Amino acid sequence: MNIAELLDGLVEGSLAKDVTDIKGIALDSRKVKKDFVFIAIAGTREHGLVYASKAIENGAFAVIYESAGSENFLVETLGCFQQEVKDLSSKLGCIADRFYQSPSKKIEVIGVTGTNGKTTCSQFLMQVIPDSAVIGTLGWGEKGALNKTVNTTPDALDVQQILAGFVELKKKTVVMEVSSHGLEQGRVNAVNFKGAVFTNLSRDHLDYHGSMAEYLAAKLILFKRPELQFVVVNNDDKNSESFLAVTHENVKRWAFSVKGNTNSVTENVTVEQVNYSLNGIEFFVCWKKQSVFVQTKIVGDFNLENILAVITVRLAQGESLASAVSRINELTPVTGRMECFGGGDKPFVFVDYAHTPAALEKVLQGLKKYCSHQLWLVFGCGGNRDKGKRPQMGAIAEKLADRVVITNDNPRLETPEQIVDEILNGFEGKNYQLIQNREKAIQSVINQAEKQDCIVIAGKGHENYQDIQGVRYAFSDQMVVKKALLERV
Fold first, then answer.
1. Rounded Cα gap, residues 256 and 258, in angstroms
2. Could you give the CA distance from residue 118 to residue 152 in angstroms, rounded to a whole number?
3. Residues with Cβ < 8 Å from 326, sequence gap 6 or more?
4. What share of the chain is helix, strand, coil (3-state, %, to 5)?
5. CA-to-CA distance for 123 and 141, rounded, in angstroms?
6. CA-wise closest residue to 25 among 105, 106, 111, 85
7. How far apart are CA 350 and CA 366, in angstroms?
8. DSSP single-letter state for residue 47
9. What are the φ and ψ backbone dihedral angles of 269, each rounded to 5 degrees?
10. Which residues contact 120 (CB under 8 A, 6 or more apart)?
11. Listed residue (102, 101, 108) closest to 131, CA to CA
12. Which CATH code for domain 103-330?
């Protein structure tokens, strides 16, 4: 493939001829090799042209650059083939899809969007769908062999490269977490989605989107895709109608509900006789007058929604109800999502990513039902993110937890004291402890709690670092929990 073929129809006028066979494309100059094309995007902080010379030094024979912001660079002095492209950021997905020969048309791609549950649903789907892989918060790859990603939804070039790799591995299905940022920024513009799943919508990322209306609008982009064959929505979320309303008429609509809600325009999957415990969830799943018993070791009320979403997707893929639930019993917890430690002669400790008001509320409400004694909570809030949710999470903590310890999360560039003050704006009283050092906070609670108690360590989940003043320090809630339980007298 040459430059003219790569950019055909994406630029105005005729392209300068260059017959060099493109060996690769890259946004990062450090990844450039001989006969690569370097793509320079206008970023929020700087233009990619800043690194064009380095890319050429590493072997790039051509530079494709975004018009916006390029006027400050002497592109003609680069000494290689150059091509200006208007709105290059929005066209990057198409360019990458073209270079990697449209991998998403050779594999079934299912997109999962929503505020909470994306990671759990995606990971559960990968566990139950044969020959499948995943792209999301925990990384990309297959179970037990995940590669790290910087963002929940990688950039448009990486998405296509990863999908192409899955095609080579002969994967049949890819489950992708699709974030609101990824949708709004066009990272999945050229991905051919067969199915789309909506988990729920609650406050998050308002520092970026500005309002809940804009946040919802970003999520809806996925369900507007004309190539979709089926969609799955959470019928217990008030926004489900909005997602159904924007789907094309020929798309098969499915809905799941743990509350028995049904919709006249969807296939409806519900539950009966639900039993929650610290050992898991038991229930009957119902569809078209069929009822099948399900038993799983996954803990947490909200996880019933995630499991039901997975069963519904399998039905949408053409599986029978019996087949759809056949592997649910084998589900294993997802890292940092209601991950359970302790038990026996020690308190149960749950590490969960809950970092939004709705997620924290669901975790605490669920555990409170079957925690035989006191429910403890260790949590904080991230810095340089939506500040409005901090007092909301403080109010939820005070209302639902018996004992609360406020600590650091990822303060980033903010002072921990400022974050704590804003959390405490949600408290009516002073029924809390403040231990800024997260490791000491976790150790303290595990040592104080009685064996009948339950402890929730919330906010970081799978993360293996703490971001403090721009530096990422190695830190794992799980490692601290394990060590504290082991040393507990």
1. 7
2. 10
3. none
4. 35, 25, 40
5. 11
6. 85
7. 12
8. B
9. -115, 125
10. 303, 306, 334, 337
11. 108
12. 3.40.1190.10
Q: Which helix (H) or strand (E) holds 287?
A: strand 280-287
> Are the C-beta atoms of 446 and 350 separated by less than 8 Å?
no
As its CATH architecture, domain 3-88 has 3-Layer(aba) Sandwich (3.40)
Crossing angle for the helix pair 357-370 and 301-316, nearest 10 degrees?
A: 110
Query: DSSP of 80-121, one letter per residue?
Result: SEEEEETTHHHHHHHHHHHHTT-GGGSSEEEEEESSSSHHHH
Nearest to 393 by CA among 418, 420, 369: 420
CB 266 within 8 A of CB 255: yes
Helices (H), 330-410: 357-370, 389-400
248 token code pair: 């094309």
Count of beta carbons in the 10 Å neighbourhood of residue 63: 23
Alpha-carbon gap, residue 255 to 253, rounded angstroms: 7
Parallel, antiparallel, or unpaired for β 267-277 and 60-66? unpaired
pLDDT tens track of the chain, all 489 residues?
A: 899 999 999 988 777 667 789 999 999 999 999 999 999 999 888 999 999 999 999 999 999 999 998 988 988 888 899 899 999 999 999 999 999 999 999 999 999 999 888 999 999 999 999 999 999 999 999 988 899 887 888 899 999 999 999 999 999 999 999 999 889 888 999 999 999 999 999 877 777 778 989 999 999 999 999 999 999 999 999 999 999 999 999 999 999 999 999 999 999 999 999 999 888 999 999 999 999 999 999 998 889 999 999 999 999 999 999 999 999 999 998 999 999 999 999 999 999 999 999 999 999 998 988 888 999 999 999 999 999 999 999 999 999 999 999 999 999 999 999 999 999 999 999 999 999 999 999 999 999 999 999 999 999 999 999 999 999 999 999 999 999 999 997
Residue ranges of the domains in the chain? 3-88, 103-330, 339-487
What's the burial of 464, exposed, middle or buried (CB within 10 Å: 0-12/13-18/19+)?
A: middle
The token duo for 301 is 């009320």
Report phi then psi at 37, rounded to 5: -105, 125
Q: Which CATH class is domain 339-487?
A: alpha beta
**Distance of alpha carbon 30 from its chain centroid, rounded?**
27
pTM of the model: 0.84
H or E stretch at 457: strand 454-458
The radius of gyration of the chain's CA atoms, rounded to the nearest angstrom, is 24
Angular region, 37: left φ>0, alpha ψ -120 to 50, beta rest: beta
